[in-house]
Write a structure and sequence with these properties.
single chain
């Protein structure tokens, strides 16, 4: 699996900057594992969700998750300095 052609290659490069040096390898490993498991679960369930709610419903679910994530990020971005 190549990471350079995926939509989140920039975020994968920035993961190393999220953690202090003594936790960097563990933190990046955990985030990468969570990302792969998330991708696998989305791939495994997308067909069943499309059958249940249609393509427009699946898009609406993804759009809602992205919107809520954005709202949460904006609300918490000023929490630390």
């Amino acid at each position: 699996m190549t990471r350079s052609s995926r939509y989140n290659s920039v975020s994968a490069l920035l993961l190393g900057e999220l953690f202090p040096a003594n936790l960097r390898s563990v933190g990046v490993g955990l985030i990468a594992t969570a990302e792969v498991l998330s991708s696998l679960s989305q791939t495994a369930t997308a067909g069943a969700v499309v059958d249940a709610v249609g393509k427009a419903g699946l898009f609406l679910i993804f759009a809602t998750v992205v919107f809520l994530t954005f709202v949460y990020a904006v609300r918490t971005s000023g929490g630390t300095s």
